[in-house]
Design goal:
The complex is a heterodimer of chains A (about 80) and B (about 375).
Chain A lengths: L2 E6 L2 H13 L5 E4 L11 E6 L3 H11 L6 E4 L5 E3 L3
Antiparallel strand pairs in A: 1-3, 1-4, 2-3, 4-5
Chain B lengths: L1 E2 L11 H13 L9 H20 L8 E4 L2 H12 L5 E5 L4 H8 L5 E5 L6 H11 L6 E5 L11 H11 L3 E4 L11 H4 L3 E5 L11 E5 L35 H17 L1 H20 L4 E4 L10 E6 L4 H10 L2 E2 L1 E3 L4 H7 L6 E5 L6 H16 L2
Parallel strand pairs in B: 1-11, 3-4, 3-5, 5-6, 6-7
Antiparallel strand pairs in B: 2-8, 7-8, 9-10, 10-13, 12-13
């Protein structure tokens, strides 16, 4: 199953992102970022299911919440950065 | 015991505060240090605390709320960011040692003091206008004097600072929870406050509200950007090295919820009403000098007084033996005493919280009457 990881620069930003999405009815889960896509060391991301990305980006744009990139994951194949 | 030392620490807390502390001790780990439930709960506590503070103090983003150990910690962060060797700093004459000692540690400082009399806000502003010249790098002002409960005109001062482009640091140690403290309206660079006074949190907690970036005092792990050997360049991580005091933060959050539910205006009116009744009663006693504002709105729930030929510390100790806790001496604010002309003997200070009762103030006045009559 495809999912997206919205990369955030801090835990607080990840929390703001997840709260904004939840308020818009989008299920969002805060995770520590996988090391392979977090070159500076520990960071946080917000996980979304595949269907919600477009709506989520609209919500974050309206709330003025920037992100550090979006990665798509699907089980064992690792992560690929999404070209927005 | 009758507790009248809430300007130092509120001793009586809402029951939700100790419950929140206990719950956090039992079930919450380190925020930002793991993906498991106990870490996530701790992270949620810290975030909720920032959000609640953003709401109470009109801060636009929760990351601008820094969790500190106390107001002194926040003031050190703010002062060390803005004040450098050789800076010119303008301060009120009612600053606490949390400000004056921090400034004294910075070499070659040029200090100007707005040393106008107690409860004279117009005089204060006139002198501020004269002293706030272009060469002033930073203005620091106590919102309320911890010794006298004098509410300084910090909002008009902030407008003056904004007009002249000078950054302002506000010490809200005595005003957070009892007066409106709004970062947006004050346009201050930083506002520091403790958690353990008017916000009813536990000791060891505080908040620094940041309208701009700041320099760290402590360096270490933040749970973010851990490969880098410099502190992250974003708030709150930049100023929060090491594991935070999550039980304390949980207690502070519960305390702020209490303040919000009760209402800052309601708390302020109640406490200043208690202070006014104590000031009225003390003024009737022979040989008692009470420091109080003539107009309403100039004094919070703090009253300082002196008794002729009675040492303040001795009177404070005697009251303690009668089961009444007050603070006596210089209250860690010698500058405030110097400005008010009370340095030689200090004062006795009674300060109130939302949990004090009118029966307690009546008992205190009866005890004071006995003390004065026996002399």
């Amino acid at each position: 199953m495809i999912y997206y990881l919205i990369m955030c620069r801090s835990l607080t930003y990840a929390q703001r992102t997840a709260h904004a999405l939840e308020r818009a009815g989008i299920t969002a889960q805060i995770l520590r970022s996988p090391v392979s896509i977090s070159p500076s060391g520990c960071s946080y991301c917000v996980k979304l299911t595949g269907r919600n990305l477009h709506k989520a980006l609209e919500v974050l744009n309206r709330a003025g919440l920037p992100h550090l990139g979006i990665f798509v994951g699907s089980g064992d194949d690792g992560y690929r950065e999404v070209d927005l | 015991m009758i507790y009248f030392d809430s300007a130092a620490t509120t001793l009586q807390k809402p029951p939700a505060v100790s419950s929140a502390i206990l719950n956090a001790l039992k079930s919450q780990a380190s925020p930002g240090r793991g993906g498991y439930r106990a870490a996530a709960e701790a992270a949620e506590t810290a975030f909720s605390c920032r959000e609640m503070a953003s709401e109470l103090f009109h801060v636009s983003k929760p990351e601008q709320v820094i969790l500190t150990f106390n107001a002194t910690h926040g003031l050190n962060l703010a002062i060390r960011t803005l004040v450098k060797q050789g800076s010119t700093v303008l301060i009120s004459g009612y600053e606490h040692n949390a400000v004056t000692r921090t400034l004294a540690a910075i070499p070659d400082l040029k200090l100007r003091v707005i040393d106008t009399p107690l409860f004279e806000p117009e005089q204060f502003l006139r002198k501020a206008e004269l002293l706030l010249t272009r060469d002033v790098d930073v203005v620091i002002c106590n919102h309320v004097s911890n010794v006298f409960g004098y509410a300084l005109p910090v909002y008009p001062l902030s407008r003056l600072c904004a007009e002249r482009g000078t950054p302002l640091i506000v010490d809200a140690s005595q005003s957070a929870g009892v007066l409106p403290v709004h970062l947006d309206e004050l346009q201050a660079a930083f506002i520091a406050m403790p958690g353990h006074k008017g916000l009813y949190g536990p000791q060891g907690t505080g908040l620094l509200l940041c309208a701009r970036d700041a320099e760290p005092l402590l360096y270490g792990g933040t749970g973010s950007y851990s490969r880098l050997q410099t502190m992250p360049d974003f708030l709150p991580d930049r100023l929060e090295a090491g594991t935070p005091n999550i039980p304390g933060v949980a207690g502070l959050l519960a305390g702020m919820r209490f303040v919000q539910e009760k209402g800052i205006d309601t708390i302020a009116n109640y406490e200043s009403g208690l202070a006014a009744s104590v000031a009225d009663g003390l003024q009737m006693l022979p040989g008692v000098r009470v420091f109080r504002g003539k107009k309403p709105g100039l004094q919070t729930g703090v009253v300082s007084f002196q008794v002729d030929h009675a040492g303040c510390e001795e009177l404070g100790e005697w009251l303690g033996k009668q089961g009444i806790a007050v603070r006596a001496g210089l209250h860690c604010a010698p500058l405030a005493h110097q400005t008010a002309g009370t340095t030689e003997v200090g004062t006795v200070r009674a300060s109130f919280s939302a949990f004090n009762k009118k029966t307690e103030t009546a008992h205190f006045l009866a005890v004071m009457k006995r003390f004065c009559s026996a002399r």
